[in-house]
Amino acid sequence: MSDLSTEDRDRPAPLCRFNLARLVEPDFFFWATGIEDTFIVDPHRGTGRILDEYALTQHYEHLEDDIELGASLGVAYMRYGIPWYRIEPSPDRFDFDLADRALGRLLDSGVQPIVDLIHYGTPHWLEGSFANPEYPERMAQFARRVAERFQGRIFWYTPLNEPRITAYYCGKLGWWPPYMRSWRGFIQVMLSVCRGIVLTQEALRSVDDRIVVAHVDATDSFTAIEESGREAAELRQAIVFLALDLITGRVDDDHPLTDWLIRHGVKPEALSWFRERAVDLDVLGLNLYPMFTDKFVARRGTRLRIRMRYSDGGLVERLAHAYWHRYRTPLFISETASIPRRRGEWMDQSIEAVRKARAEGIPVCGYTWWPLFALVGWAYRQGGGDLRRYLLEFGLWDLEAEDGNLIRKETPLAERYRDVVGRGSECVGSLRSEAGSPIRPTPQGGVGSSVEGLRSEP
After folding, report:
1. Which of 81, 246, 331, 364 has its CA 20 to 30 A from that of 437?
2. Residue 406: which H helix or E strand, with range?
3. Model pLDDT for residues 80-109, shown as the tens digit of each residue
């Protein structure tokens, strides 16, 4: 499938790494959506349930129609995950039927996929999941095979969604394989997934150096509400940036987490590996939610208490500033949504916040309402209730159960988003050049800052 069809050749050239400087043109902006794509396929020991969001929301049955719903919004991009466990059902045996149908349909609809290669889970045959020593190379091989399959047709890939959340649920909280419950477990998973990200980026570029690697990170903001919680809040905030700092080679002797990592068993040569293989960031996706992202820390004796507060649009501006000044790479909102009664309010606030950030010279170049339709909460896997109890109606379409089917019910927010998308960059305004920090094309055709060696501590 590497040859371009006549129809493909007649379309405008898609955004690839060689024309990535367009991301910081004053009036360039893209709108996107996506479908929740968590795949935890190890059955829960108590309930026997797995988390395959596509199965739970009946996306497999509604695949073509769901993609048409997204395309009907007029978006240029859709974040779309392909389940590794189905694409490679056994080691080195690949079945691309699902990926061909889904990604082919997106392309036929005029929507460019941002292919989500891993969204939390690994295939059941990879014993130990992210703790398996073969994981990084297996991940890179999977990515290489996908890129070869769609070479010349698809240019945007996310190696792994939210590495820190992956490490927390798999290594610290113990909800998902390999079910570790310690900071050492967290670090082991984190180092493994980050090695996989580095090798995956190398594999993608070895297939096609036009590929854009869109790293996507969770963006928690930790604040101490009293002095006793300050040290814990600072540690948690530093950990928020750990994955990106690792893969970009920033974790050196002066990094605030180096001593902490070594105390938890990390060998200095493991950190040297990342500095020697440091990757560049083409574009950075920020996942943020007003009901989850702002966290406030207090300590009660030996117990740490972390509470969340619903945020306003200022959250978007704060995070955009923090990530831009730390990494100096173009940003896009890769996930955002809100609870049903506040969805419209949050859409307005978050888009206005993007406009303000761009007016201040922060290159936020895209916005993704995620998900397209409702998702099933992660508690379903260990819970005992009916699936409908776990539906989270954050999307532009709700899901309503009728005779065993989950019917897609369009909300007024879908038309609202359709109108925003149709106005191009009007709602977010022009990107102002940031005084003193001009953005320039890199020799590879990407985007970089004229400020060399910029470094910021959390």
Report:
1. 246
2. strand 405-410
3. 999 999 999 999 999 999 999 999 999 999
Question: What b/e readout covers 311-345, taking b as 16+ CB neighbours within 10 angstroms?
Answer: bebebbbbbbebbbebbbbbbbbbbbbbeeeebee
Q: Which domains does the chain show, CATH number per domain?
A: 6-219+313-447 (3.20.20.80)
Q: What is the helix (H) or strand (E) element at residue 222, kind and residue range? A: strand 221-224
- Reduced to 3 states, what is the DSSP secondary structure of residue 177? coil
Q: Are 18 and 445 in contact (CB under 8 A)?
A: yes
**Strand spans (E) along 26-161:** 30-34, 39-40, 51-52, 77-81, 112-116, 156-158
Average pLDDT over every residue of 432-437: 60
Task: For residue 326, give both structure tokens.
Answer: 């730390």
Q: Which of 82-96, 97-111, 176-190, 420-434 has the lowest mean pLDDT?
A: 420-434
Q: Specify the 3-state DSSP secondary structure of 423.
A: coil
Beta carbons of 324 and 448 less than 8 angstroms apart: no
What are the residue ranges of helices labelled H in 73-182? 84-87, 97-108, 135-149, 163-167
> How many Å apart are CA 53 and CA 39, to the nearest integer?
7
Residues 6+ apart with CB under 8 A from 45: none
Distance of CA 427 to the CA centre of its chain: 24
Q: What tokens were used for 319? A: 């995070």
Q: What is the mean pLDDT of residues 427-451?
A: 57
The 10s digit of each residue's pLDDT in 1-54 is: 444 444 444 445 689 999 999 999 999 999 999 999 999 999 999 999 999 999
- What is the model's pTM? 0.92
Q: How far apart are CA 120 and CA 109, in angstroms?
A: 28
Separation CA 159–CA 140 (nearest Å): 9
User: 455 and 241 in contact (C-beta within 8 Å)?
Assistant: no
Contact 247, 198 (CB under 8 A): yes
Structure tokens at 253: 């002797």
Please answer whether residues 50 and 42 qualify as being in contact, where contact means their C-beta atoms are separated by less than 8 angstroms: yes
Q: Give every CB contact of residue 437 below 8 A, 6+ residues apart in sequence.
A: 328, 361, 449, 450, 451
